[in-house]
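HUMAN: Can I see a protein plus its fold?

ASSISTANT:
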Amino acid sequence: MEGGEKENEASAGIHEPLLLKEPRKPSLQQRLSRSVSTNTTSQLAIVGSNVCPIESLDYEIVENDLFKHDWRSRTRIQIFQYIVLKWTLAFLIGLFTGLVGFIINLAVENIAGAKLVITNNFMIEERYAMAFAVFAGSNLVLVTFAAVVCAYIAPAAAGSGIPEVKAYLNGIDAPGILSPVTLIVKILGSIGAVSGSLDVGKEGPLVHTGACIASLLGQGGSKRYHLTWKWLRYFKNDRDRRDLITCGSAAGVAAAFRAPVGGVLFALEEVSSWWRSALLWRTFFTAAVVAVVLRALKDFCETGKCGLFGKGGLIMFDVSSVKISYHADDLLPVVILGVIGGLLGSLFNYLLDKILRIYSLINERGPVFKLILACTMSIVTSSCCFGLPWLAQCTPCPKGITEECPTVARSGNYKQFQCPDGYYNDLASLVFNTNDDAIRNLFSSGNPNVFRHSSVLMFFGTMYILGLFTYGISVPGGLFIPIIVTGATYGRFVGMLMGLSSNLNQGLFAVLGAASFLGGSMRMTVSLCIILLELTNNLLMLPLVMLVLLISKTVADAFNSGVYDQIVHMKGLPYLEAHAEPYMRQLTAGDVVTGPLVTFSGIEKVGTIFFYLKNTNHNGFPVIDEPPISEAPVLCGLVLRSHLLVLLKRKEFLPSRTSYSGDPSQRFTSVDFAKPGSGKGFKLEQIELSAEEMEMYVDLHPFTNTSPYTVVETMSLAKALLLFRQLGLRHLCVVPKSCDRSPIVGILTRHDFMPEHVLGLHPDLKESKWKRLRLRPSMLNSVVRRPSSTQCLDL
């Protein structure tokens, strides 16, 4: 059942027969209410750091009389306006995402830079206790701010947001996931978390930020905050919002890495479930706008008007000046890096899953525990960043270099830290720094002896562990940068071990190490390859990056799935994969249909409609005509819950069971039934009906989708799943194979395809299922505690 829509099959209020007390034709109820098992899969999920009900999006076009009249009445000017608005919105998404990305980078660089400069000043004066107090105290204040706004104002803003965006584009909606409050908290929280030295990145949150901006623009603003634009009424549907949010996610990656082509490919490969050529053009245009905006703002900052915002602001690890020359014997260490990346990446995903499950138990106890967890990680991280350099030996500054040594500013390869003049602390150059500058130092290729083996190993272990334990606390933060840092570290170490025996320098080994760990953890190939090439500005590395990504992904796939896929399932989001499980070919659509099924007559009594809307949470109801309206029971179509609420609110009732003879377009417009922003519309509690109105009737024919997608009950479940996903459906009607039965058997929704439901109905398939899965059976169970059947929400 759809996480919000077991439309007519299992719902929160209709599990018990005694609830069905509304007077109704007994024969109709006996024929259409199936006494079969109900779908009790959880319709709650973790969104950000909060547990909330979920529902499905509906990308199907509702072809009722109003829709047909609306399209027939549109003029060429209106069609042209719609096309222009689509491209205008794509431009605005790119513009605003680029501006927000720049603001986040500007704030992080200045706050973190000022903190490090002040700390270094105390270090120069040998006031080490005060230096640690300033460093740790600043980090604690910044992280506490990020955790407070996230835990108390917008829990949906926690984490990177990429799993939520990926789930949304798969057809899953949840309260607050793309709201204006989530957008603001995501921006402020990511600034606090990243500048507070936590081992998180701002790149994942930028993807979520771009999606929020696209949603805000596409839904015409927010009525709740009195920000609405009526001229965007054309986009009040899930199909157009899906395309805009896809553009927003691509813009987020483009803003995070200054990688416009990589952003388009990321949206195509990782987050989007539906794609077409027209969408490719618009996402490319959006990403190009982001690139132009960032380039213009970067040029402005080079005049020195952006404070400490410098090279470290907009990520660009330029290695184009390095001459790349490699031979066949250089491929062996590259292959080894790929294998290491696959093994470490799969281990990272496995451990992260275990840690997140523990964190979920802590987070569900309330905001106070979220704050305690975030503050604890801040103190641990500050202690590691400040304490580890004391374990490293001071190294004499190399002679003949052009860089300043030792470096006392916030960046550079030669941090002085506690060392005397003429010496530097190589571990401080990595750990006592921003992640962007640490990556830049690892990618550097000037001096092969700048780092000691022991320092690199300590930094690798620290970043690997901190990356595991930091992600999952209640602050906005992504995994991209922590994974790049960790991968670049062991890549640099392999390069140090190879020494002069390889034609590749240590900086290039660091780049390949980052690629291998990204491929082993995230399991992306094409998009990561292009992102890394745009980051490093060196096209000559393309063959090596491709090779290491393919090897690392192949090795890691032998153990578990990608990190974002694991998080999606761990959060309890009913994500539909692009392929069907083999056991689904052994079942038919009729084998998983559950009940009871609630239907309406073509001309239905107001009291009956009100009763079922009140006692069920179904989102769609089959409409059936029976004699004397028709010669035999006929399925007219499907009417949506939101449309029924509009009809009851407007009180366009009939005194008797007769068809409405007028034109429905004179009473309603398509805008009246358009989906409101953030999925909020009329509530049944807002509708007041008198006893007289309850006895009146509503003609549902003009508002019924007369062409819902249907499948015969003998169709294989695998085939039905592919149809359901590729068409982006919310409801799939199952009709009988023989004509001597009721015209509809049931309705399939998203949750009917979930493994826990299918295998719960057919436990004999479990054994073969577990043998095929790489994960243990327990991995199918969400971290969210499964509610009982009376708790499930059919939204």
Q: What stands out?
A: The chain has four domains: 93-302, 328-386+439-571, 576-593+713-769, 599-664+681-706. The chain has 28 helices and 16 strands. The first strand starts at residue 44 and ends at 47.
